Amino acid sequence: MLRTMAAIGIGTALNACDSSSAAPARPLPPPPPGRLVSPRPGDWPANVGNGKSVVVLGAGIAGMTSALEMTRLGYNCTILEATAVPGGRNRTIRAGDVLTETDSQQTCMFDFDNELYFNAGPARISHHHEFLLGYCREFGIALETFTNDNRAALLHSTSSFGGQPIIARHVRADSRGNIARLLAMAVNQNALDLELSATDKTNVLEMMRQLGDLDSNFDYAGSSRAGFPGQENTGSRQRGELLNPLQLQDLISETFWQQRQVFSEGLNQQPTMLQPVGGMDRIARAFETQVAADLITEAQVTEIRKIANGTRVVYRDRFGTITSLDADTCVCTIPATVLRNIPNDFSAAHQAEISSFLYSTAGRIAFQSRRFWEQDHNIYGGISWTTQDITQIWYPNSGFGQNNGILVGAYIFGGPAAANFANLSPQQRIDTAIGEGVNIHPELSAEATHGFSVFWPKVPFQLGAWGTSSPATLLTGDDNIYFAGEHLSILQGWQEGAILSAYHAIDLIVARDTLT
After folding, report:
1. CA 244 to CA 161: how far, in whole Å?
2. How far apart are the C-alpha atoms of 504 and 510, rounded to whole Å?
3. Are residues 509 and 436 in the same domain?
4. Domain interval for residue 495
5. Which of 104, 120, 220, 379 could form a disulfide with 373 if both were Cys (CB 3.0 to 4.6 A apart)?
6. Does residue 351 sit in the same domain as residue 470?
7. Is 240 exposed, middle or buried (0-12, 13-18, 19+ CB in 10 A)?
8. What local confidence, expressed as pLDDT, does residue 38 receive?
9. Pair (303, 377) in one structural domain
10. Measured between alpha carbons, how far is 255 from 33 in angstroms, rounded to an integer?
């Protein structure tokens, strides 16, 4: 009995596991010394940067955080950004916007409407990302709830339940019920007497009864937690009838069902999650306002050099003019995928880590559509999962009750599927996403319009979604050059990680300058 329970994973039923299948896609190691221990802004010595100059490469969240906080310390900062729009991967797509990839260009054809936007980069904020949320408060950025886990969303495997999508609450309720029944059976058969006292057994049985919604005999025959017949569509009046429970053998037939139930248990995926009202780029625009006086856009870095007592950066401006900029210090936030192709004087160790640094292949595909998920299926926000290549479908978390919305019809990260999608043309990605999406929502074939896609390995000056290597050398300075970016933090793939990396670089610079 105990071996059977171990095989099906009691931790899954108890929601005790930590699974993180989206960014970042792998468990990260404990932070090495110096990471995630940065002081809060304001704890650095005041005016430590007076009379000193810094050039910041890249106006993503890490770069703008570095410039903002170092300016407050008295440093004279200049930010060089290769694109016309600061924010790095923090970008929100609206009607008329143009996205260029290395081999294609798309113009967004969404209708002009404040609710019709697509976060083509970071799209959610964890409640414990305190530094990012602190900047949102400081800058007056309005926030709203991002629904990461919606029990009304769907789980779909092509090889289970006849390929039909199952409402998430049905899977969760019946998984818990079946696991609770097995543990109660083991307790009642005295299989755990070596572990439990008589009082413990009574308490565990009560815990299992409540956890699994078991009957008085500790059996499971279904639960109202799973919903009622016809609830996958509107208009059902059978609210007193229970659904037939899903069989345990089906729920353990593949790991998909177990993994998807614990996704939101990962620390960075737990409720409450948040998003800025009107699009994630509200954060990038607010940072831009703070550092605008020091920002040069469309300035493509062509060389990074060491000079006596400082650094020299050569860049090409929007007119093609080559300019050389000398500074005491350089903070480089350029992604390693781009940085490795820029001539530089980095140490051999820094160059080696930059050259070998790995990034995830990932992308999203979005559509404008009638809100059939709300109107026909009572799904308000959240994520549906599938074993197909499209992996996830995201429902908008605002504008509830309006007629149209932006549906993320695919979020693909890692593995052959992401590589294959990245190599498709934008229209091929859109067509493929609809072709798979109709297996979950048949309405997509008629309702989805104005498709738009982004795959970060194809976006110039990014060439990757988020870092996946474990940094070491890049956490140290290279003479007067320091490095930052989400790829160098314990929170790879998150804006909070970008901020933490900026703080770490500032730590190193302030420590150096405090001694001089």
Report:
1. 13
2. 10
3. no
4. 53-86+282-358+466-515
5. 379
6. yes
7. exposed
8. 41
9. no
10. 36
Q: Where are the beta strands (DSSP E) in 361-403?
A: 362-370, 382-386, 392-395
Do 367 and 454 lie in a common domain?
Answer: yes
Let me know: does 388 contact 439? Beta carbons within 8 Å.
yes
Residue 68: how many CA atoms within 13 Å on its side-chain side? Answer: 23
Domain CATH code at residue 450: 3.90.660.10
Consecutive sets of 10 residues in the chain, 516 residues long: mean pLDDT of each? 37 32 39 42 88 98 98 98 97 98 97 97 98 98 97 97 96 97 97 97 97 97 90 66 93 94 94 98 98 98 97 98 98 98 98 98 98 96 98 98 98 94 96 98 97 98 98 98 98 98 98 89
Indicate the residue type of 353.
E
Please tell me whether residues 194 and 330 are part of one structural domain: no
Q: 499: part of which helix (H) or strand (E)?
A: helix 495-515
Per DSSP, the three-state class of 121 is coil
* Residue that is written with structure tokens 């670089």 in the block: 505
Distance CA 131, CA 37 (A): 13
Decide if 177 contacts 222 (C-beta within 8 A).
yes
Query: At a CB cut-off of 8 Å and minimum separation 6, what does 513 contact?
Result: 48, 49, 52
> What are the CA-CA distances from residue 432 to residues 121, 229, 408 (Å)?
21, 32, 13
Q: Count how many domains the chain has.
A: 3
Judgement on whether residues 174 and 247 belong to the same structural domain of the protein = yes
In 10 A of CB 224, how many CB atoms?
13
Contact 357, 336 (CB under 8 A): yes
Q: What share of the chain is helix, strand, coil (3-state, %, to 5)?
A: 35, 20, 45
The three-state secondary structure class of 59 is coil
Could you give the CA distance from residue 305 to residue 480 in angstroms, rounded to a whole number? Answer: 10
Q: Give 181: exposed, middle or buried? Use CB within 10 Å, 0-12, 13-18, 19+.
A: buried
* Host H or E run for residue 57: strand 53-57
Verify that 114 and 68 share a domain, yes or no. Answer: no
Asked if residue 396 and residue 373 are part of one domain, the reply reads: yes
